[in-house]
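Hello again,

I reread your note about wanting to compare the complex against the isolated chains. To keep things tidy I'm splitting this into two emails, and this first one only covers the full assembly. Below are the input lines as submitted, including protein chains and any nucleic acid or small-molecule components. They are followed by the predicted structure of everything together. The single-chain runs will come separately.
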Amino acid sequence: DTGVSQNPRHKITKRGQNVTFRCDPISEHNRLYWYRQTLGQGPEFLTYFQNEAQLEKSRLLSDRFSAERPKGSFSTLEIQRTEQGDSAMYLCASSLEGQATTDTQYFGPGTRLTVL
Amino acid sequence: QKEVEQNSGPLSVPEGAIASLNCTYSDRGSQSFFWYRQYSGKSPELIMSIYSNGDKEDGRFTAQLNKASQYVSLLIRDSQPSDSATYLCAVKRGSTLGRLYFGRGTQLTVWP
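Full-complex prediction:
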C-alpha cells in the first residue's frame, strides 16, 4: 500500500508565473485535501474533495487558486500569477470516508514552493 | 480566539523523561482529535487519534481527551532523541465536512 505522493517536491518560480502541483492519494481513499503550511505555523486548510466533487473551499483559496479532481483519483492544484506570499509548503492528504475511526488524514511529502 | 491552541514551546526534556504536550480547542462540537509529528522539512505524520473522553495508549504515547474542558494532551514516556520534532494538534469539528484545524505546533527537543 503506497502512501500519498506529490509532485513536484520542490518548485521555484518567478512572481507572476503559473504553477501546478499534483497529488495522488492512497488508492482506496475517496477523500482528498489540500493544505498550505508556512514556517512556524500549522497547516491551513485550502480545499477538500470527496470523489470528484469539491465540497469545501477555504476563504484562503483566492481566485488565483484552483483545484480539480476530475476522475476522483489524483488532484491538481494550480496557482495563477504567483506572488511571493504564496511561498509555502503545499500539503495533500487523503482519507477514507466512513466511521470517524477511518476518516483519518494521511499526508503526502508536500511540494515546497518558492516564489522569487 | 484561535480554533486550536498549543502550549508555547519550545519544550526541552532529557532522554528518558516524560514529555507533556497540551492543546485546547474552541469548538465544543469537535468530534475527532489527532496528534501529528513533523520533523523539520518533512510532512506531518500521524501518531495518535482519539475520539472519546479518557486516555488512549499506544506504545510510549498516551493521548488524553477531556471534552468538558476542551483539552487534549499527548504524553511521551521514555523520551528519545528521535522524538525531537514539532508536534501538531489537529481537531475536526462536528459542523465541518472534513477539514482539520491545526495548532501552531510545539517543538520538542530531547537531549541525550
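For quick reference: Chain B has no helices and eleven strands.

B.
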